[in-house]
Amino acid sequence: MARLSSSLQSISRRSFLRGAGVALALPWMESIPTFGLETSKSLSKAVSIKAPVRFGCLFFSNGVEPEHWWGKKRQDGMEIGPGLAPMSPYTEDFTFIRGLYNQMAVDHDSAHLGRTPNLLSGAWVSKDQSEIRVGKTMDQVMAQAIGRETALPSLITGIEPTELRLEDGLSMLYGSNISWAEDTKPAMKEIYPARIFDLLVGGGDRDLDRSILDEVLEDAKSLKNQIAYADQQKLGDYLDSIRDIENRLEHASAKPKAEGWQPSLSEPDMERPADALPDDIPSHMKLMMDLVVLAFQMNKTRIATCMLNNDLSQMNFGFLEDVKGSLHLDLTHNGRDPELEAMYLKTNQFHTEQFAYLLGRMKDIDEGGESLLDNSMLMFCSNFFDGDKHQADHMPILLAGRGGGSLKPGQVLDYSEEDASNRRACSLYLSLMDRMGVEQSSFGDTTRRLKGFG
User: Fold this and answer.
1) Residue 33's domain spans which residues?
2) Tell me, what's the pLDDT at 315?
3) Other CB atoms within 10 Å distance of the CB of residue 95
4) Are residues 3 and 117 in the same domain?
5) pLDDT below 70 — which residues of the chain?
6) Does residue 171 share a domain with residue 40?
7) Per-residue pLDDT at 75
8) Which of 1, 280, 310, 416 has its CB surrounded by the most CB atoms within 10 Å?
9) What pLDDT score does 229 carry?
């Protein structure tokens, strides 16, 4: 067996030590670099000088006001509807995608919970109350393939807490999570900005081994004695997911910087948020966007999702001007009441503002001649098109960024008149995974990449 050159031995040794104590350390060690690769070409692959591509998904629930959600390509650029007004400064930075959907969501008879957890997987959602089952989502497929290269395989965030109640006879775990690490287990989201900061930076004033579980364990023990056996299993899965957050937190504080290319930020450029949840929704959402930017800029993770609302959201939008304190669910399911539709539009615009803010932050961060946004693919989407009709045969999707040069934003891609086989959201996901270096022969309900995408 050929000996490694001293430089490659050094890289291999450091890679192994960074993975110490992590279950995937050995496969990682074996994959970069393998024995016998001594050429400069092999070394350039092992130590990249180009910024990595990041993927992010920003989700808002309950769809859009259709009359105001559109994009049209003009000679002088893109024209967008009122629902997308906050994106006006960024029409050359994103692509408007129309007509993609998940067939399993269309076929499901649960108008909400059959169309949210499978957003990023295209999988069938179990209707058996005793079995939580959906499909592993594309972000988690990527996280398991490339997540070992960063401190956190992925960053899963949200604004509203995970719910355990039943709705339509199904668990609200389905409505509270769009990211699923396994068919039967969500990649549990974190809603506390301070905990996310600690995940990224490590430390803080908290006892990291006990930071989360102590807060819920007493109630969980009490609840366990009051619920059926099947629900006890669900509760156990929930607590296991929280323990996974704890493990990721510990891992984050021990991980050193990457070889070769170096992130533009080595220390956080924001103060640690307060331990408590922010007092108001706009501040909470803005903090989450800042933390996603921080995670990407520091190269702590390359994959992130954020749920701005749960499905069947109870979020109150009374903080918006001319919105009279109605719950989000009531505004979106409005029976075409003109006053409620006008307020629904304002919630769409507010959600879009969060995406625009994220793009603006990332566009201003230089990574050696390219922006952080240039080196990213950011998807903004919902589980419905027309929320009032629970329209699942068309998902609202914006895709921003250049994917490290593999995407050409500023387009309008309309698949609504295509054959059904060319309208799979999972075809888009296959195309995005390719650009993250995670090639799959099939995913969800398709084996095809998205036609005309790039």
Assistant:
1) 1-47
2) 92
3) 21
4) no
5) 1-48, 203-224, 230, 234, 237-260
6) no
7) 87
8) 310
9) 73
Judge if 229 and 156 occupy the same domain.
Answer: yes
Residue 446 DSSP SS3: strand
Residue 374 included in any domain: yes
What pLDDT, on a 0 to 100 scale, did the predictor assign at position 219? 63
CB half-sphere exposure, 218, CA atoms < 13 A: 3
3-state percent breakdown (helix, strand, coil) of the chain, nearest 5: 40, 15, 50
Own/partner pairs, 7-14, CB within 8 angstroms, 24+ separation: 7/43, 8/33, 8/37, 8/38, 8/42, 8/43, 8/46, 11/43, 11/46, 11/47, 11/259, 14/259
pLDDT (0 to 100) of residue 246 = 60
- 370: buried, middle or exposed (CB in 10 Å: 19+, 13-18, 0-12)? middle
Distance CA(53)–CA(403), nearest Å, equals 6
> Whole-angstrom Cα distance, residue 167 to residue 153?
31
CA-based nearest residue to 351, from 69, 91, 53: 69
Position 258 scores a pLDDT of 45
User: In terms of Cα–Cα distance, which of 145, 96, 155 is closest to 293?
Assistant: 155
**In this structure, is residue 446 part of a structural domain?**
no
Please indicate, yes or no, if residue 391 is contained in any of the structural domains. yes
Q: What pLDDT shows up at residue 220?
A: 67
Distance CA(348)–CA(356), nearest Å, equals 12
Number of structural domains the chain divides into? 2
Measuring CA to CA, which residue among 85, 116, 88, 62 is closest to residue 350?
Answer: 85
- Note whether 281 and 363 are same-domain residues: yes
The reply to whether 286 and 413 lie within a common domain is yes
